[in-house]
């Protein structure tokens, strides 16, 4: 209690100095009290592990405990790594016994509306055999690694597949292929989503279950543990691809990237280009979207599924007319044990393998069927060649095998799920499917495996499976221990750094009520902003993206200082004589047109001209594109505002060579360009002309003669400004070419734009501009080009009205919302202040009490 006593001694003095608190219960007072409480040592009531008698040695004990826990954690982590390695080895052995290429057969149950034939053509014999009944006397037995009976649930199917999926986490590429005739349940096995939509929870297919399992791996502490030891990053990528014959549609639909590395959560798009240097698969138009949780992944997966091409065929109402491929790739980087490895899981719902003649397809369906069968045949050839260990593997025979190349070869596990129909009429297709599957399997295992050998193999496999389960259980236990220790460590570290959870809560309550001192000083005086001047969605968005100075930080400059580069809230001004439709349309920032001169007056602005690169860096940019011919009346209605996102700029040759020299003297900023910049707009009234907005201040190079011959309002005399860039502020085609040449020049010369604000129109009528405004404030709106241009042209240093320049003219015209706000505000402010003081006092008392001061504290307060 040494520390507490010491603090208490100083506490009574401090409290004496604060005794006038009844009168002085201000925010500063509350903050001071907060600081005092914060400086007090923590009590030991939440340190359950420590003996009370050891309080004097808190720090030493904490340090001792922390180092002990660190040691334990290191040992446990080491043990987990060892178990992981062991599990990998066992799994590998298990999978090797099972074979790198395994073939399962799933028999679909008879579904509603289907007639059961007298002769059951497909009979599952045991867990490995399927008997085909051709006639009563003629049967044929097919053996597979596993036969999934018609009654097998989706759970059972996934439990068989799960070990293969797990092997992907251990560095293998995995390929799971669903093969079979149309309507045999391939999509049901792979992509069934019902379980995730609240219906038939057990129905969900392999893909959603795999995604779930992967995220489970990320959430069950595995990843956290590795991250804690800073040696493992874990990223998964899912791709969804649909391939179509003859490139009829975009072959690639969706690529999802699951990020489980707890790093960046931002989304990104990424295209995979052909001939990637790392030799990976080149997939055009493959879009990669980084996702961070299961739901996000599933929603994107569903989206991709919707895009899959399906059509009604003779055999299936909604038959998949494509191969649907899902790729999950994982990048594990384990700095201590392994190098960075990227593994993939391909899950492919192959198109129906039926003969085209059977489906009686024609036209496009016929082409699709042919394409599907060709690629399936190519797939068979590749697997066949792999099984035979041929020197040449014909991957290039189809797109399908090209894409799957790195997941079909060595160091990968392939699982073929052959689906068959129970119907008699499908017997021919069933035979084809089973023969295809048998061809793959028999090559791997050899036809000669005896029953004894098989039983022995299966016995070993069962043992290995048990061993693996034991290892996984142990590993899970260790992970829980590690988690607990980490929590303990966290609380100890917090304690030793002097924070008290109770106090933290208390203080944060106080802080909620009291803005901190910094905030108070940094905040500008509360502006009485008319509601119509509040930032618009657009300006807020821009400030979020860092294009604007934040409101908090911006000190309120004088009106003159504000001109050149200050942030402009969005507001527009009431324009005398303007109709309501004009006032409703407004423009954020002044529009500024940069004329780029290249000696060809007839050249129009190209669509991809980069305005933002020319604008001053402090500016926010908008591109205004005209949808129609501009004229003074239609301009406001026709324009379309598009934020110019500062995306990678397509640099024109001219812009690249353009050197921007900025010299600010007073309010004037000069830009000099060393090279002639391309393209001058031929006509401002062209629908494709764009206006780069928000020039804080644009001026043309002084080398342009102020009386320079302006060919027209729509262009600049090339000869006079060769090598320079010219900045035009307001476009207007209502001013004729001849009579207003000078206007144009004047605008260019010395023009400054500032604070153009957009308004919500609801309160516009209640306000008006003050009468005593300086004469150089132009009352124009960019919507009224003609007025604006004329008036601005007369002003050398134009100044736009700021918030202060408005006065409330008619409060009855305020919107009901604004009135309601105004009425409730005063009362709520007073109430809030009072509650704040009361609450502060109560919390203060509680705070001291929680520190164990109790009686002493109140004594001190009394004295
Ligand atoms: N194991 C099963 N249990 C219950 N219903 C099933 C099962 N397998 C398939 N079905 C049903 O059979 C119908 C056809 O299945 P599905 O669309 O998955 O076939 P498919 O092989 O993917 O066909 P296609 O190749 O034409 O896309 C669906 O209505 C599906 O719900």
From TrEMBL:
Residues 553-562 have a biased composition (Basic residues). ATP binds at residues 180-187. The keyword Ribosomal protein does not apply. One of its GO terms (cellular component) is microtubule cytoskeleton. Residues 520-565, 649-668 are annotated as: Disordered. SUPFAM superfamilies: P-loop containing nucleoside triphosphate hydrolases. The keyword Nucleus does not apply. Residues 653-668 have a biased composition (Basic and acidic residues). GO terms for molecular function: ATP binding; microtubule binding; microtubule motor activity. Residues 66-93, 461-495 form a coiled coil. It comes from the Eukaryota. InterPro entries: Kinesin-like_fam, Kinesin_motor_dom, Kinesin_motor_dom_sf, P-loop_NTPase. GO terms for biological process: microtubule-based movement. Residues 100-443 form the Kinesin motor domain. Keywords: ATP-binding, Coiled coil, Motor protein, Nucleotide-binding. SMART domains: KISc (SM00129). Belongs to the TRAFAC class myosin-kinesin ATPase superfamily. Kinesin family. This is Kinesin motor domain-containing protein. It comes from Centaurea solstitialis (yellow star-thistle).
């Amino acid at each position: 209690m040494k520390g507490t006593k010491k603090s208490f001694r100083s506490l009574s003095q401090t409290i004496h100095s604060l005794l006038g608190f009844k009168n002085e219960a201000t925010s500063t007072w509350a903050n001071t009290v907060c600081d005092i409480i914060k400086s007090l040592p923590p009590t030991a009531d939440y340190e359950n592990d420590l003996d009370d008698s050891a309080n004097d040695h808190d720090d030493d004990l904490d340090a001792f405990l922390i180092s002990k826990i660190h040691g334990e954690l290191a040992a446990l982590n080491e043990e987990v790594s060892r178990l992981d390695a062991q599990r990998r080895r066992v799994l590998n052995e298990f999978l090797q016994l099972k074979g790198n290429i395994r073939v399962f057969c799933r028999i679909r149950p008879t579904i509603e509306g289907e007639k059961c034939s007298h002769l059951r053509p497909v009979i599952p014999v045991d867990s490995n055999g399927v008997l085909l009944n051709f006639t009563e006397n003629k049967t044929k037995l097919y053996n597979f690694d596993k036969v999934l009976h018609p009654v097998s649930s989706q759970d059972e199917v996934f439990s068989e597949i799960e070990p293969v999926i797990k092997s992907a986490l251990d560095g293998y590429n995995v390929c799971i292929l669903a093969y079979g005739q149309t309507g045999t349940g391939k999509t049901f096995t792979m992509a069934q989503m019902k379980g995730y939509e609240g219906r038939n929870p057990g129905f969900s297919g392999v893909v959603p279950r795999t995604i779930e399992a992967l995220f489970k791996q990320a959430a069950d502490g595995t990843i956290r543990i590795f991250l804690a030891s800073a040696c493992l990053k874990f990223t998964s990528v899912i791709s969804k691809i649909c391939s179509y014959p003859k490139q009829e549609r975009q072959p690639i639909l969706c690529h999802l990237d699951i990020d489980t590395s707890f790093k960046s959560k931002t989304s990104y798009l990424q295209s995979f280009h052909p001939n990637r240097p790392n030799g990976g698969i080149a997939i055009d138009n493959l879009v990669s979207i980084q996702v961070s949780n299961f739901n996000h992944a599933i929603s994107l997966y569903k989206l991709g599924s919707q895009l899959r091409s399906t059509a009604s065929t003779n055999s299936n109402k909604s038959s998949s007319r494509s191969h649907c491929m899902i790729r999950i790739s994982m990048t594990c980087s384990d700095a201590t044990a392994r190098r960075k490895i990227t593994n993939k899981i391909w899950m492919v719902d192959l198109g129906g393998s039926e003969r085209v003649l059977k489906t009686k397809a024609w036209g496009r369906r016929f082409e699709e069927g042919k394409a599907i069968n060709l690629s399936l045949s190519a797939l068979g050839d590749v697997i066949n060649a792999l099984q035979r260990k041929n020197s040449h593997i014909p991957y290039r025979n189809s797109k399908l095998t090209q894409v799957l190349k790195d997941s079909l070869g060595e160091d990968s596990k392939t699982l073929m799920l052959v689906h068959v129909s129970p119907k008699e009429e499908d017997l021919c297709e069933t035979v084809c499917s089973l023969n295809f599957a048998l061809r793959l399997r028999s090559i791997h295992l050899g036809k000669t495996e005896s029953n004894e050998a098989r039983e022995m193999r299966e016995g070993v496999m069962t043992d290995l499976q048990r061993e693996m389960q034991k290892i996984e259980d142990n590993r899970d236990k260790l992970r829980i221990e590690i988690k607990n220790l980490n929590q303990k460590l966290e609380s100890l570290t917090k304690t030793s750094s002097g924070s008290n959870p109770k106090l933290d809560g208390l203080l944060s309550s106080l802080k909620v009520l009291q803005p901190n001192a910094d905030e108070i000083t940094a905040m500008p005086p509360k502006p009485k902003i008319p509601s119509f001047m509040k930032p618009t969605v657009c300006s807020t968005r821009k400030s979020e993206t860092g294009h604007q100075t934040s409101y908090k930080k911006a000190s309120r400059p004088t009106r003159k200082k504000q001109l050149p580069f200050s942030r402009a809230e969005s507001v527009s001004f009431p324009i005398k004589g303007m109709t309501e439709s004009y006032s409703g349309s407004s423009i954020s920032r002044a529009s500024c047109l940069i004329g780029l001169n290249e000696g060809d007056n007839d050249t129009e602005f190209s669509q991809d001209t980069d305005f933002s690169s020319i604008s001053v860096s402090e500016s926010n940019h908008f591109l205004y594109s005209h949808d129609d011919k501009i004229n003074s009346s239609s301009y406001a209605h026709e324009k379309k505002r598009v934020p110019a996102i500062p995306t990678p700029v397509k640099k024109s040759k001219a812009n690249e060579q353009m050197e921007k020299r900025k010299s600010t003297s007073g309010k004037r900023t000069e830009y000099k360009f060393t090279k002639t910049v391309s393209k001058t707009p031929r006509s401002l009234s062209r629908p494709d002309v764009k206006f780069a907005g928000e020039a804080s201040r644009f001026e043309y190079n002084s080398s342009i003669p102020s009386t320079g011959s302006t060919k027209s309002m729509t262009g600049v005399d090339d000869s006079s400004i060769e090598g320079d860039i010219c900045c035009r502020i307001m476009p207007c085609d209502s001013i004729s070419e001849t009579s207003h040449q000078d206007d144009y020049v004047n605008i260019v010369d010395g023009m400054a734009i500032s604070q153009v604000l957009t308004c919500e129109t609801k309160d516009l009528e209640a306000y008006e501009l003050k009468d005593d405004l300086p004469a150089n404030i132009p009352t124009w709106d960019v919507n009224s080009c003609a007025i604006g241009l004329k008036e601005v042209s007369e002003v050398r240093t134009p100044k736009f009205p700021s918030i202060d320049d408005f006065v409330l003219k008619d409060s009855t015209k305020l919107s009901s919302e604004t009135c309601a706000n105004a009425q409730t505000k005063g009362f709520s402010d007073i109430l809030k202040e009072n509650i704040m003081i009361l609450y502060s006092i109560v919390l203060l008392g509680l705070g001291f009490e929680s520190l164990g001061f109790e009686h002493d504290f109140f004594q001190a307060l009394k004295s």
